[in-house]
């Protein structure tokens, strides 16, 4: 049977995925979250005509011809306005952010004024009407739509929501991604490691990737190569309400590759197993109720490349985030052999050259090598059955963010 193409695999994984519902969070916890609803202003900003400078509130007509001497009748500071109103020939001392008194229409900055010993103030420069006044509502008016649904909250958006009177914000729930490592050979970093054992690293990498996409992580640890034990862990993820379960390893065809059977035993409806991709051919996908299960291959590079291609968009969709793979065009700096029936994702370094991007594939492409993946900033994407390519040929690269 021909292997499932990568694009079709992604379509199947994303089929029917809806963003999670909203939850209210305190505004100081909203950074990095996605707005589930449009946010409107609950107040007007500034709420009054405000001075933008330190100086004197005046009537422009009084300082139109110089010299102009005005009598000082009070002061308006930020937080405490001048109560009265200003008439002809009068000025009010005013500071940045303070309400402009009634009757005044202009701010004479203090650098252009001289205070006289008799309590008067003299304008030493004319000033155009309305200068240095921020009109009420300059920033926003009550009821204005300020931030749209789907907006990623960052520092300015959080500041704006706070200024508009919000203390809590409706954001999309963060998807819960359960991660389960399988294999008798695995130990956690820092644990005693027998001569035939290795450190389970995939869960950390996959967890970091999922978190960067907005997920919460349920770490199910390492489960031994035992079908019943794996089934139990799968059910745990389901009962915990995970929207996604990622299993690591045991996806291939070996006698100890028990994940598929364990998932079926847990009641999974299998979507597909094995796709036309290198690395990552044994990828598995299915559903257990609403929980989507991605069975990633154990090889560290395979699991992380699969996570880039399939887990990221899935988590993004659940969390209402926009997601567009960063695909670019580059020129090969070295030749590539013809490809077989699997789409190839070749670890590469991509750098700017005089005529655009230059992609340099790493010479060794073993799917166990994290050093190459950590050194790579891109994957060269080679279509199935692509003919051999010379150095200088165009290629497509997927940038690894
Ligand atoms: N006869 C065949 N053998 C294999 C095939 C095949 O088609 N026919 N496919 C190969 C491909 S491609 C891949 S990829 C691997 C994937 O195998 P599994 O998903 O069953 O992974 P494991 O055998 O469990 O592990 C592979 C490798 O990765 C290490 N590993 C596993 N989990 C972790 C972890 N959490 N952290 C770090 N490293 C991990 C494990 O120790 C193995 O070295 O199968 C090929 N075989
Ligand atoms: O597909 Mo495996 O992931 O080639 O090593």
Describe the sheet with the most strands. Answer: 6 strands, mixed
What percentage of residues falls in helices of 4 or more residues? Answer: 10-25%
The count of strands amounts to 26
Cofactors, ions, other ligands? ligand LQZAQKY5, molybdate ion
Widest sheet: strand ordering: 7-4-6-5-9-8
Distance between the termini: 34 Å
CATH topology of the largest domain: Molybdenum Cofactor Biosythetic Enzyme, Chain A
Weakly predicted, low-confidence segments: none
Rg calc:
32 Å
Count of separate DSSP helical elements: 7
Q: Provide the domain count.
A: 4
What is the CATH level 1 assignment of the largest domain?
Alpha Beta
Taken from the alpha-carbon principal axes, the silhouette is elongated
- At CATH level 2, the architecture of the largest domain is 3-Layer(aba) Sandwich
Under CATH, the homologous superfamily of the largest domain reads MoaB/Mog-like domain
Structural class of the secondary elements? alpha/beta
Percent in strands = 25-35%
Average pLDDT for all residues: 96
